[in-house]
Write a structure and sequence with these properties.
Blueprint (H helix, E strand, L loop, with lengths): L1 H21 L15 H7 L3 E10 L10 H7 L9 E14 L4 E4 L1 H4 L2 E7 L5 E10 L4 E5 L21 E6 L7 E12 L10 E4 L11 E4 L4 E8 L11 E5 H14 L9 E5 L2 H6 L9 E6 L4 H5 L6 E5 L2 E2 L3 H9 L6 E8 L2 E8 L5 E5 L10 E6 L12 E6 L4 H4 L7 E5 L2 E2 L3 H8 L6 E7 L2 E7 L1
Antiparallel strand pairs: 1-2, 1-4, 2-3, 3-6, 4-5, 5-6, 7-8, 7-10, 8-9, 9-12, 10-11, 11-12, 13-14, 14-15, 15-16, 15-17, 17-18, 19-20, 20-21, 21-22, 22-23, 22-24, 24-25
């Protein structure tokens, strides 16, 4: 009850504050209009929507709900039913194509959703269909059908500067559409472990839970980012550090999601690391202060065919500067299979331009029921090491899982990467088969899922 009173007091204060501001003059003493974001927001806000979902909850999705003691004190049905639909998430989205009804949001907003509802600014509730999702960048596209939709114009996130004013629009804490303003605090934030590919815009415009998938716009009302995450040490609300996916990065992913329903990433076939002053001295590199040092080139890969050598420093890809190995990974991760790229590399004190063609990853697959009845319904794929962009093998990927199958019921999901089975690392299907034979009591899987990791015990 105390928290409700506090919220009520805050809302009353908000109304009083809003009323007080409304009473202020809109022009200065000279009759000139006072600066205001209101005209821009009146154009932009109809294109920002609220998103709510309902998903299928199984006992594997929430182990605590299997405990009747927990359910008694913390709510919920006393006997949860398999496949029961429960509220899953609440977030935001941005209409980017009014004619076709495309809405972009975060993948984590609609992940595992059985039902997706989009609420427009005018209060209309529309059922949405998932078009495609990419957990690696944390983006998804859903589609709604209705007349009178308004879309946001896409801006140029590459033109942003630290200090530029921006506005975040979304649905914080489920309160409803809200706009907050601030500046661009930093650009190119990476290495946070939030997503697979990171090149975030950092802003102090207040972003809170529920803003995920909402719009970050410039003063002209152009979409420059998709609000995605916050730094919140206490697990609560905003502390002035929020992150948005740059729209130029998002646009390439969105195009593929609309066309294919997923992102078709290829491989160049090299491993790289950041260029440090120590490495620059060791390689006698004088004309490249920043870049990605090539540590490995896979035999027969696209990188090898392009003439890339170990010790080369990649300093630009398709004209865009590369300051780190993370920059290189982001640049390559947004390119399609068979797409050509131009690389500027520093080699032996001289710059050279090399041209490569992104290759399709070589993958072999196997049906789960051929490995174990408990894995039926899943399809597992492995990737040729020569196509890896990482120095460490990632493991076995779950390419697909049939909903309701044995694999689904033990909490395997599409996109999971199995790094070990029964505490034995696996990188090939043969290693997977051998690891499954190690225990007759059950199967212990170590899984990477997005930016998190977990163990799954199948008995």
């Amino acid at each position: 009850m105390k928290s409700v009173k506090i919220i009520g007091a805050c809302l009353i204060g908000l109304v009083m504050t809003t009323t007080a501001w409304a009473a202020l003059p809109t022009r200065d003493s000279q009759g000139q209009p006072l600066p205001s974001l209101a005209p821009m927001l009146s154009r932009v806000m109809p294109a920002v929507v609220n998103i709510s979902t309902r998903g299928h909850l199984t006992p594997q999705d929430n182990p605590l709900m299997r405990d009747p003691f927990f359910r008694y004190f913390f709510g919920g049905p006393q006997r949860p039913q398999q496949g029961q639909r429960v509220p899953q998430s609440l977030g935001s989205g941005v209409i980017i194509d009014a004619g076709r009804g495309y809405v972009v949001t975060n993948n984590h907003v609609v992940d595992k959703a059985a039902e997706i509802t989009v609420t427009l600014q005018d209060g209309r509730n529309l059922t949405a269909t998932l078009i495609g999702a990419d957990p690696e960048v944390d983006l998804a596209v859903v589609q709604i059908q209705d007349a009178g939709l308004k879309a946001l114009d896409l801006g140029d996130s590459d033109a942003l500067r630290v200090g530029d004013f921006v506005t975040a629009i979304g649905n914080p804490f489920g309160l409803g559409q809200t706009a907050t303003s601030g500046i661009v605090s930093a650009l190119g934030r990476s290495g946070l472990g939030i997503e697979g590919y990171e090149d975030f815009i950092q802003t102090d415009a207040s972003i809170n839970p529920g803003n995920s998938g909402g719009a970050l716009v410039d003063l002209d009302g152009h979409l420059v980012g998709i609000n995605t995450a916050i730094v919140s040490p206490g697990g609560g609300g905003n502390v002035g550090i929020g992150f948005a996916i740059p729209i130029n990065m998002a646009r390439k992913v969105i195009d593929q999601l609309i066309e294919f329903g997923e992102v078709h990433r290829g491989r160049l076939g090299l491993a790289a690391q950041d260029l440090t002053p120590e490495l620059a001295a060791a390689f006698d590199i004088k004309n490249a202060a920043k870049g990605a040092v090539v540590a490995k080139v896979a035999e027969g890969s696209a990188a090898a065919k392009a003439g890339i050598k170990v010790g080369d420093v990649i300093i630009a890809i398709n004209g865009k500067k590369i300051a780190s190995a993370s920059d290189m990974r982001n640049a390559l991760g947004l390119l399609r299979v068979d797409e050509q790229l131009t690389m500027l590399v520093s080699r032996d004190g001289h710059n050279e331009t090399l041209v490569a063609t992104i290759a399709a990853p070589k993958r072999t697959s196997i049906e789960g029921d051929r490995l174990s009845p408990r894995l039926a319904g899943a399809v597992f794929v492995t990737q040729d090491p020569s196509q890896s962009e990482s120095q460490d093998m990632t493991g076995i990927e779950v390419a697909d899982v049939a909903q309701g199958s044995p694999a689904w019921l033990v909490n395997l999901r599409k996109g999971d990467v199995i790094t070990s089975i029964n505490r034995r690392p696996v990188t090939t299907l043969e290693e997977m088969k051998q690891a499954l034979k190690l225990s007759e009591r059950g199967i212990l899987l170590n899984i990477n899922r997005g930016s998190s990791a977990l163990f799954v015990l199948i008995q």
